[in-house]
Amino acid sequence: MKIGIIGLGRMGGNIARRLMRAGHEAVVFDREQKAIDALVADGAIAASGIEDMKGKLDSPAIFWSMLPAGDITEQTVTAIAEVCGEGDIVIDGGNSFYKDDVRRAKALAEKGIRYIDVGTSGGVWGLERGYCMMIGGDKDAVDHVDPMFAALAPGLGTIPRTPGRPEGDDARAEQGYIHAGPAGAGHFVKMVHNGIEYGLMQAYAEGFDILKGKSSDKLVEEERFDLNLTDIAEVWRRGSVISSWLLDLSASALAKDMQLEAFSGNVADSGEGQWTIDAAMEEKVPANVLTAALFARYRSRVDHTFGDKLLSAMRYGFGGHVEIPQ
Amino acid sequence: MKIGIIGLGRMGGNIARRLMRAGHEAVVFDREQKAIDALVADGAIAASGIEDMKGKLDSPAIFWSMLPAGDITEQTVTAIAEVCGEGDIVIDGGNSFYKDDVRRAKALAEKGIRYIDVGTSGGVWGLERGYCMMIGGDKDAVDHVDPMFAALAPGLGTIPRTPGRPEGDDARAEQGYIHAGPAGAGHFVKMVHNGIEYGLMQAYAEGFDILKGKSSDKLVEEERFDLNLTDIAEVWRRGSVISSWLLDLSASALAKDMQLEAFSGNVADSGEGQWTIDAAMEEKVPANVLTAALFARYRSRVDHTFGDKLLSAMRYGFGGHVEIPQ
Amino acid sequence: MKIGIIGLGRMGGNIARRLMRAGHEAVVFDREQKAIDALVADGAIAASGIEDMKGKLDSPAIFWSMLPAGDITEQTVTAIAEVCGEGDIVIDGGNSFYKDDVRRAKALAEKGIRYIDVGTSGGVWGLERGYCMMIGGDKDAVDHVDPMFAALAPGLGTIPRTPGRPEGDDARAEQGYIHAGPAGAGHFVKMVHNGIEYGLMQAYAEGFDILKGKSSDKLVEEERFDLNLTDIAEVWRRGSVISSWLLDLSASALAKDMQLEAFSGNVADSGEGQWTIDAAMEEKVPANVLTAALFARYRSRVDHTFGDKLLSAMRYGFGGHVEIPQ
Amino acid sequence: MKIGIIGLGRMGGNIARRLMRAGHEAVVFDREQKAIDALVADGAIAASGIEDMKGKLDSPAIFWSMLPAGDITEQTVTAIAEVCGEGDIVIDGGNSFYKDDVRRAKALAEKGIRYIDVGTSGGVWGLERGYCMMIGGDKDAVDHVDPMFAALAPGLGTIPRTPGRPEGDDARAEQGYIHAGPAGAGHFVKMVHNGIEYGLMQAYAEGFDILKGKSSDKLVEEERFDLNLTDIAEVWRRGSVISSWLLDLSASALAKDMQLEAFSGNVADSGEGQWTIDAAMEEKVPANVLTAALFARYRSRVDHTFGDKLLSAMRYGFGGHVEIPQ
Predict the structure, then answer these.
(1) What confidence tens digit (pLDDT) does each residue in A82-137 have?
(2) DSSP characters over D192-251
(3) Mean local confidence (pLDDT), C116-134
(4) Per the database record, which ranges form the 6-phosphogluconate dehydrogenase C-terminal domain (chains A, B, C, D) (predicted)?
(5) What is this model's ipTM?
(6) Cβ–Cβ of B206/C131 closer than 8 Å?
(7) CB-based contact (8 Å) between C203 and chain D?
(8) Predicted model pTM
(9) Given CB atoms, is A326 within the 8 Å cutoff of chain B?
(10) How far apart are CA C154 and CA C246, in angstroms?
């Protein structure tokens, strides 16, 4: 198939490459000419803009926008819609808020344009490992671009089949992509995926914090263990209940430097963690772990909260406890 | 009554004073001669040590140890027990762990010594307002020293009676002290009191953080409110559902400086918050709020956790996200 | 002043009564004729609808909508706006989302109508104690209706002045009402108030849970205390650091029945707890306690979460642990 | 080597089998004769008790106690110590509290007996996959039984080596076992492992709860997605950031029944989750996620907390809200 890809950053560029490796054609555009040139060197067709891209695609045209969530995606989808007509397909592969997908799909449907949202996991490893994709949109559109999704997905690979999985179940899930539901469903599932990701990461973070604390010279010597965090991460990869890809990454980082001194610990959060909590609240579902994980990131980015100071002030008020800056 | 008081810090000194104001006699000792002198100036009898104190008390002797929890209290109670005999009374008014009380009471009972544990709330305000006391120990011992507790307690004062409180209920509760149960029960109730205190404080802290955040110039102007936190604290004291003494203290601190710049925000925790969570876990009672409040204090005292760095490392591992120290 | 009040429920009816007691006139309307009749019996002027009400008010007309948040408030404000003109004042005293206030104020301003949002705390006790009010809107409008707010507020009463509060500060805060900022600011502050309220309530709830658990016969006898929760709540009201109005209410409920058997424990939440967390996330402010308090309410209303079952399923998967329904 | 194994339950029996498959000899004992018979059928040597077992072992004798934590392990270790002498080795492979290990090792060392604690992960899958082991004890003892650990461990298998792991690092970690430190260190690391396990599990549980809630007919139709949880779990196994063994197990459970109706959702917790929080508090390390995960399990086992009822009572007190049992 021929796919027009807008946004050639870490994700978009490699998606184009993986598609081309599978025999698909990629027409590419980015605001940075360098990014376009790099893809052209790998076999892509350059486009000078969205209108030019449209001219270079087949009919129905297939556009894949791979941009950060927010205004830029909104503008790009709008711009694509302007050059599209009946039957064309617009795919948003970024991290859009799923309610934006619902709205956009509705608006584009009025012009006969088919909108697909794709949540993509796999990060910088996707080019080699393939991308795990959660897809929302109308069935006919999703089916139309299925060859493309099949090429991007990891495929069965060496991961064992799930015991007990019935033969009749959707085979795409085992290839690493699913059609989750109508427009918005793809990004919704990806959003929850990221919410879980935050929770998993924080669970490891707290566990290693406790191991680290036990090795700390703040404890008296009899209570201390001098633990090798690198070896602990390694051994847990091998037969333990908590083995995971995130643990693999932790083990690798700790193998390089057990103090992790290259990392600031100012941990960013994308919108998806927050949206997951929003969704939980809309459904009245308690999500203490996912929320605590999100808040740990907020907290990692400030020195002291104002609330901390208020605590100090109250303690001074009732107990005369003095907690003043040195 | 005549009471021997060991430990003349912020709490012990004022307890002696309030007892003397009510006509009781205080024999006092402290490691700091200055502290003894100050009490003697207020009418107390000086003791040069525990043995000397014993000689200056009536029979049965009543000792009140008012020291920080931990080794020093343990040593003092042991030392008192050595000079005591059948029928004498040893009171621990510090913040001891209630299981230590159970153990001590048992050990002292073998020599006929009666042990009482008193959890005391009221902080630096107790001298004027009276002390709220939660008492554990055998009934006969607690009854014997009742006149002393009655003098220390706030009394009915201006606080309205609780609607619906039956006439037959223990009148002491309305005077501000209770006999909570056998040895340990007093400190157990005080421990939970402090656990709740942490939760309440953190609830206000987070609320004011959100108000502060809404006034922050990190928000775009249309989304910002320039809120006067001092007036908000003040108005909530008057007729709102969240009025409390801790809010009174917050209002006072904010009235002096709305930025609370005098406070570091490195918030200490005594053992009681931690013991409360221990008790919750022993009972298998979920206590998410009390625990989050405790952990917020731990977090206030570190710059970055090691866990934060591990999060950064994982994010770099899967997404190439760079979170390095500047 | 003459005020038109729409919505004569628990809150609206008593607001009308308190205004009339202070010499103001109330023109009243409710969908329930009985509610109108009751107010007329107390001296109010009946209106048959919004248009009729407008005719019975002075110029500028002052409308006070006191309805639950959501569609009904939106419709009512729209209906009022239709009969209003330049300079008239529309007050929303319900629990509206503050962003709705911002939007409404803007829309109404185009017709010269002045919109005020009032967050009101005090519950069923407001008629006697007065209402604590947090007000948003333009200064001239808020000033115009000041006599009405002054009548509704608790006034100085017996609550002591805050030590350290400067003389020059807004005196209204000490009377129990504040002008918090432009439209939306009133409901924003009230929203955070409710968020804090949830946190405070849950802190007490967990504390009493731990006291209750310690009295449980699930513990072996030596580890158990037979605690009198009624007396504990009572004594904490008197001189302790955690005294508050919510504790007063708890003491009263426990005095009536220490088992609280009349209460289901299916705890509702209004929108404001959720909006507070939304606001925290928008500001990137960690709010672990307020969130845990909200989630505890969600959790109180379900028997088992699906997540609980998944935990059981995983435990069965790795450990052969059997957690099946009996 | 020849190893005496006491406790032939799910774990102990399979450990004996895996050792025998590797050419080691197992002398076995259990309170259930049936369990002994089953092992003898697989090639083990029966012992009629600990003394008999000692007679059938080489010198130094190697005992492996594989019993649930608590009194039974304590009694067994004591009984073994009574028949042991200088140089013999006692291994506790159960889930003991690490502070018990420290104490036991000290006591046994006085008689020249060498104590080793082994935290074992792998559950019912260990016989085939091998056991991930975290080992504490003196170097000479651990080295002596190394062939046994090597046989029990998974070995390198198909799990890729960690990129960046230096050549010089302890090779045992890559085989799936580590010598973590002195006595207690093994169970300490295993304890934290289980704490993390709880956190990971709860992160998935909450995520699937949110997916489930989105499919609920409590939502209005436009806001609902009819999500296939089985396929979602499956697709996340393949190339996503959150792939893990626990997810594999979830996918398998959901493949068998997407409603998980066979599971009660009354989720048990072993002591290790609780001890992990204890350790965090001793180190003053915030562990919000691990604690929330533990508390979710407590909460899953009660219908309503007493605290829930107190919330209802307060709500009735200030707002007249009625939350009574139907």
Answers:
(1) 999 999 999 999 989 999 999 999 999 999 999 999 999 887 788 888 999 999 99
(2) HHHHHHHHHHHHHHHHHHHHHHHT-TTS-GGG-----HHHHHHHHTTT-TT-BHHHHHHH
(3) 90
(4) 186-321
(5) 0.95
(6) no
(7) no
(8) 0.95
(9) yes
(10) 18
